[in-house]
Here is the input.
Amino acid sequence: MLQLEGLGKNFGGLPALDKVSFTLPQGRVTALIGPNGAGKSTLINCLTGILTPDQGSINFQGQNIVAWPAHAIAKLGIQRTFQNLRLFPRLSVLDNVLTGLICASRQSIFMAMLRLPSLRHEERNLKLRALEALDLFGLTDKAQWPAAILAYGDKKRVELARAIVSKPALLLLDEPVAGLNAQETRAVSEELQNLRRMGHTILVVEHDMDLVMTVADQVVVLDSGSLIAAGTPEQVQHNPLVLEAYLGRMEATA
Amino acid sequence: MTRQQKLFYFLSLHRTGLLVLCVSIGLLLFPLVENNPYTLGLTNLVAINALVVLGLNLFIGYAGQISLGHAAFFGLGAYGSAIATTTFHCSPWLAMILVAVCVALLALLIGIPLLRLSGHYLAMATLGLNYVVHNILLQWDEVTGGPSGFAGIPALTLGNFSLDTPIRRHYLLWCFVIITMLFCLNLVRSSAGRSLAALAGDELAAASLGVNIQVSKVKIFVLSAILASLAGSLFAHTFGYISPDTFNIFASVQFSIMVVIGGMGSIWGSLFGAGFLTLLPQWMDVFDTYKDFIHGGILVLVLMFLPQGLISGLTDKLRIYLALRRRNAAT
Here is the structure.
């Protein structure tokens, strides 16, 4: 589905990503973990075309998408959520989710101005799909609320709904439970497992280890821009390099 | 559902269409109530300004950009029509379309490099564009008539029916406004409109959702330039006389203030903004004398306290207040 080959990105000479290579298998959940500053968000930004990598290739469904603009990558069916929410506060919850279907619509500005019957038909379909996505996250009765007044947990859900509404080929989630309480985290964890059952291919960046252990099929670990481990959650959990990256060197206690 | 609920549902479902219908009927009957040519001249000016402001509001409010140069396109439309019909004896309708096409091409050509800028830089660049166009209109007197202006522009005709009285022009101009408004309302309630709203809200998020930011900005810039050009042509044919100072940078600033008063992204607000600022100096002489101070003051105050613009800022606040009250009542 997606292969990274020797991906590198420097910020002013400092390597944020250093020859990172791994593969995302179709229909699986891959968790990307690592301490703060390990380059996780940089990696997601490279994948979505917000940053351009300095070296390496990103192969998505047989195409090298390195240096593609963000909107072209989105059109291939790669959708994402953001670490710090990026909703449109003035739009309603429903309209926010509908923005996730921008790629699914073929309207041009001039067609939209004339509002031809074909367009009305398409609008109705888009709206039904958006309502379906809202239903999945239990947000149906808040559809007409302005997004600005939602509680933080609900905002995270709306962003998730916006990302999945187009049924993307690949879903990139940047810390979906950051800032949520234990109960909300459990709910999101269930929703992610739900999405996996529906066959989504997901890359999730997360600090919450319980969540990673429950939802991930595969874990890759970054530290200071380099890939230090990859494998099943159990393998990674007991990998000394990973423990070292998170907890510091063990020599003192050994 | 009871009959009352059904009625409310019908009203809320078709609120936009019904509102347009009410406004259209009001405008249809307006000349019966008020047939003073002076007043109609003013409301006709409101209509022309509203056309420019509707386009500019798509650009400022929906695409999230800034332009202090739309009077340039307005002026090019007016002078283009004037020269084509008077000097080259072209038919006014054909001239209007040809000029709009030329202005669209010009906007495309300028827009591609210009819209790589944003914020203050874009404001300065559009201001510069306006300055250049104003100077050309002022200095190239063999073609434009220079500072003394351009007179003798023919009125528009429909067949043998000349649109040469204020009442006839009233119907023509407001037809343009209502049709443009319908186009704009359709646009903002569509997927294409949502991608513009996304662009105005957050460029990075919009790009990640698949909006081609650069192309969208240029498209809306061209669209707003076309509307300004059409408004300019109508202005020339309505008043029969134009002079460069109608199209200087202060006119551009005034258009932007109309958008700000109406509110970012508010189609109805655009209409209000154009009406309010056009009529204000007529109600109070003080406003005419100290126009620039007062416009500046309004701009600063609105942007300080309601950055979304006066009307849409207030309606946003009201919407949030109502939604919060409903939420608190539900829990």
Chain A touches chain B at residues 48-50, 69-71, 74-75, 79-80, 82, 86-91, 95, 98-103, 105, 107-109, 111-115, 119, 122-123, 126, 145-146, 148-149, 162 (CB under 8 Å). Chain A has two domains: 1-77+169-254, 90-168.
